[in-house]
Amino acid sequence: MLMRHPHPELQFAYQTPFGANASEDGVQFSVFSRSATAMRLLLYNRVTDREPSEIIDFDRDSDRWGDIWSMKVPGLKHGQLYHFQASGPWNPAEGQRFDSSARLIDPYAQALAGTFQKGEDGVVRPPKCVVVHDDFDWEGDRHIRRPLDESVIYEMHVRGFTKSRTAKVDANGGYLGVIEKIPYLQSLGITAVELMPIHEFPIMDTMGQKSSRPNYWGYDSMAFFSPHRGFATDTTPGAQVREFKEMVKALHAAGIEVILDVVFNHTCEGNENGPTLSFKGLENSVYYILEDDKQYYANYSGCGNTVNGNHPVVREMIFHCLRHWVHNYHVDGFRFDLASILSRDQSGNLVPNPPMVELIAEDPMLADTKIIAEAWDAAGAYQVGSFGSGSRWAEWNGRYRDDVRQFWRGDSGTLGALATRLAGSSDLYQHSGRAPASSINFVTSHDGFTMNDLVSYKDKHNLANGEEGRDGDNNNCSDNYGVEGPTRRKGIREVRTRQIKNMLATLLLSQGTPMLVSGDEIRRTQRGNNNAYCQDNDISWFDWRLVEKNAEMLRFTQGLIKFRLGQPTVRRRSFLTGQPTTGRLIPDVSWYAPDGSPLDWGQGELAMVAYLAAPPKSEDADCQGRDVLMLFNSTGQPREFLLPDVGRGMAWNLMLDTAATSPNDIFVDEPGPHPPSNRIVAMPYHSMQVYVSETVNS
């Protein structure tokens, strides 16, 4: 008899060849610099020390291997604080910006400690690097490996989720605070959290001052391998490593995956006027894309500089970084901010099959992870539907966002676009062999209005950002339905509630992978601010009082998520064809006008019925589904709908009605009422109803 051994304890101890690697007899320090003429290691005893306790020179003959400076320092242990310091040519016209006085962050630093400090010479020094020793007990934790088509993603900010006093947690604003709120995430039903940037970014500005516009969102990378120290409760150097791992392990134990929003498109060093903190002082022209006049930086990110992602050295760093987060931290995937920059070559040109994009897709050690592209950048590249090659990449579907918003606002000519997005955006993804789940569907994200504000404001209100309202998108596809901002007028409040339910229902019943923004389920507001990047306050924080105040919307969202995860008809693994599937006599999808006749796509009215036939369990589903009938009325008038003949003779139950109030707005745990016996359904303006069959129509 063949005996099978139990799975070994899983420890993804992936050690990079660079950075600071501790062993029993010391620490090996390795850093890349091709043009440096000298390299020094600066060691510190305490986080608050302004000057190093020891400076050790790398020997050019014995400590340099090709373009790698590497030496082992006996006696050092984990917890040691350090900087690098490099001498070399100062020649901006040739792209070289060495500054022998600059204290440099190790590009491979696994943790940072402290803040920016101003030295006696007036020069600002960055936070110190920490030698990290990985001795965390994962207790058998494994990646969850949930398929995208079974996923519901929840975009959230680690600090903002529990920073408000209303959170009533012990560890507010950090990794451990998230752990305390896991029961809420479980009750909501989401399957993955997509964390806004948690790799290191400046807490204060890069001049060491408290900024009037702090980078709350975190899209200002400083050390790609390091968890953000500002989200740790324990201030001991390196404690953020342990606390982040505790959060991941706890989320996994609750069945929730962890996706990181990673920013490999720019850094906080900024343009030619910015500080030298790391990459500029080690090999500027390798790490950044420069203009033809090399003293200036290409700015495809809109943030001052652009990481040179397809240079072999930088490509290797990003590759090591992704493996680091997957194997040392057990994260389940990545969302790549402004990912189109990874499609640009060293001259900034968009290229087919870019090496970095292909490397990420094909790496066998990342094969279990989700990889999601924000398939555009700030310089005009827009690759939604065409990012990468093959089936590996998923994408934020910006066209889904715009089409759904415009349809429910009542924009003319949007009926066909809504149907295409509802059916999984085959126009964007089918040609490359991808599945509907490759479309990450969203109506709102961190960047823009919240769902509540989308139906409460026609215009952005960003004066609190201190940029005189110049920042933020001017094209929001939003409406206020009569009054800008909060109102006591009952009719306006009712239509706003209905519109939020319409968009949540569309999002969670569309083919593809839904992404919900933290707080939308309880109508979180940013008071009309559609670019709250610098609002580290109650404008951005999750207000936990709304959980009770807006319990109706929370219950509605919970019901939608539960229905979606239990109903394969609305999350098919292959695209709808309009043709009968195996064992069925009716098409997998069919479209009808309100009078029950086949839909004329040329008619200008924003009203239709979508009939989704359940997929055979053996063909395209993990459990037996039910036929689903969706009725949409985005006109400005109430309408009567005649249920189509295709469903005649079947028993139907109401699943949701966005015009109804709780508990009659959604039925998930028990069947809802049957439609009228005459099959005529009255629907108010801007409303949606969904019916589910009691059996499968053959």
TrEMBL record:
<dbReference type="InterPro" id="IPR013783">
    <property type="entry name" value="Ig-like_fold"/>
</dbReference>
<keyword id="KW-0378">Hydrolase</keyword>
<dbReference type="Pfam" id="PF00128">
    <property type="entry name" value="Alpha-amylase"/>
</dbReference>
<feature type="domain" description="Glycosyl hydrolase family 13 catalytic">
    <location>
        <begin position="155"/>
        <end position="564"/>
    </location>
</feature>
<dbReference type="InterPro" id="IPR004193">
    <property type="entry name" value="Glyco_hydro_13_N"/>
</dbReference>
<dbReference type="InterPro" id="IPR013780">
    <property type="entry name" value="Glyco_hydro_b"/>
</dbReference>
<comment type="similarity">
    <text>Belongs to the glycosyl hydrolase 13 family.</text>
</comment>
<keyword id="KW-0326">Glycosidase</keyword>
<dbReference type="InterPro" id="IPR044505">
    <property type="entry name" value="GlgX_Isoamylase_N_E_set"/>
</dbReference>
<dbReference type="GO" id="GO:0005980">
    <property type="term" value="P:glycogen catabolic process"/>
</dbReference>
<dbReference type="GO" id="GO:0004135">
    <property type="term" value="F:amylo-alpha-1,6-glucosidase activity"/>
</dbReference>
<protein>
    <submittedName>
        <fullName>Glycogen debranching enzyme</fullName>
        <ecNumber>3.2.1.-</ecNumber>
    </submittedName>
</protein>
<dbReference type="InterPro" id="IPR011837">
    <property type="entry name" value="Glycogen_debranch_GlgX"/>
</dbReference>
<dbReference type="InterPro" id="IPR017853">
    <property type="entry name" value="GH"/>
</dbReference>
<feature type="region of interest" description="Disordered">
    <location>
        <begin position="463"/>
        <end position="490"/>
    </location>
</feature>
<dbReference type="InterPro" id="IPR006047">
    <property type="entry name" value="GH13_cat_dom"/>
</dbReference>
<dbReference type="InterPro" id="IPR014756">
    <property type="entry name" value="Ig_E-set"/>
</dbReference>
<dbReference type="Pfam" id="PF02922">
    <property type="entry name" value="CBM_48"/>
</dbReference>
<feature type="compositionally biased region" description="Basic and acidic residues">
    <location>
        <begin position="463"/>
        <end position="473"/>
    </location>
</feature>
